[in-house]
Amino acid sequence: MEYVGLQEQITSNNRKSTLLLIGFPTILLTALYSVILFLSNSGSGVDLETSNRAFIGFVPYVLIFTGIWFTIAYLGHSSMINYATGAKTLERKDNMRVYNLTENLCMSVGMKMPKLKIIENNGLNAFASGLNEKNHTVTLTRGIIDTLEDDELEGVIAHELMHIRNNDVRLLIISIIFVGIFSFILQIAFRSFLFGGGRSSRKKDGKGGAAIIIVVIIASVIAYLISLLFKFALSRKREYLADAGAAEMTKNPLGLANALRKISGNSQIGSIQNNDVKEMFIENGPDKKSSGIFSSFSNMFSTHPPIDERIRVLEQF
Fold first, then answer.
1. Which residue has the higher pLDDT, 42 or 287?
2. Helix/strand/coil (H/E/C) assignment for every residue in the chain
3. How far apart are CA 49 and CA 55, in angstroms?
4. Dihedral sign (CA 108, 114, 119, 123)
5. Cα 232 from Cα 275, distance rounded (Å)
6. pLDDT tens per residue, range 133-157
7. Is the pLDDT of residue 90 over 80?
8. Which of 180, 205, 221, 279 is 20 to 30 A away from residue 108, measured at CA?
9. With 0-12 CB in 10 A as exposed, 13-18 as middle and 19+ as buried, what is 119?
């Protein structure tokens, strides 16, 4: 994939971030309006005036809930990521090699040095995180540090630095936050149906509690799937662009290609179960034990492009 230029990528990602900030609440409000329309249907038709009045009354609560959720996630995302991964700070004295490679790359492009963290695991993986310069972080596993040669590790670090420079990390975290809202609503609705819907369905009213919850579940599922499509549409292209940017930064595309070849099938970190965190990794594909139809099915819904294809593209630089 042709590298389209840093400023163009930053502008594009800033625009997408704005669209996400507008788009996800819009999806949530659309789902809410659909549920209200169902509830206002008395059998002789939908009472639009009552529906619109009820919708307008609910809008402030929805926006306040979304704002609180986003603020908590925005302020606490670094702590949440560290908790999920068990990452620890990596100081210069802890590993001069990693620190110097990162510092040299940052100096070559005039960017501020991010924080460095390490996950004590033999899996080969890395990711970038943070929403601003104060909390930008590159996290590496012990396995990737000990396994890769200097030029390969440099390629991996450059890839993660490109995610920071392109504002990919901010875009991804915003999408994760909003998808989490739909996932939360869906779980609440489904549990309400399981533990409370049955009793409500015995009411004489045709719109018993179970019917209402089913509509909420359907609306939540549709909204959740749309939000996932938003996120998947962002994920694959950003990996290609970060690969291309890393190749340009290091002037050595084969370094990253060789690193990806070693990472392939060895990227799993068993201690990390959070799928949102896994989406941030340089590789989030099935391990070597996955094969046949199960591997193909996993690839269909992968947040990352096939690693073999990424290697092929890098080798053409």
1. 42
2. CCCCCHHHHHHHHHHHHHHHHHHHHHHHHHHHHHHHHHHCECCCCECHHHHHHHHHHHHHHHHHHHHHHHHHHHHHHHHHHHHHHCCEECCCCCCHHHHHHHHHHHHHHCCCCCEEEEECCCCCCEEEECCCCCCCEEEEEHHHHHHCCHHHHHHHHHHHHHHHHCCHHHHHHHHHHHHHHHHHHHHHHHHHHHHHHHHHCCCCCCCCHHHHHHHHHHHHHHHHHHHHHHHHHHHHHHHHHHHHHHHHHHCCHHHHHHHHHHHCCCCCCCCCCCHHHHCCECCCCCCCCCCHHHHHHHHHCCCCCCHHHHHHHHHCC
3. 10
4. negative
5. 13
6. 888 999 999 999 999 999 999 999 9
7. yes
8. 279
9. buried
Cα 295 to chain center, whole Å?
21
Alpha-carbon dihedral of residues 10, 13, 14, 20, nearest 10 degrees? -170
CA distance 169 to 174: 9
Active site residues: 160
Which band of pLDDT confidence, cut at 50, 70 and 90, is reported for residue 227?
A: low
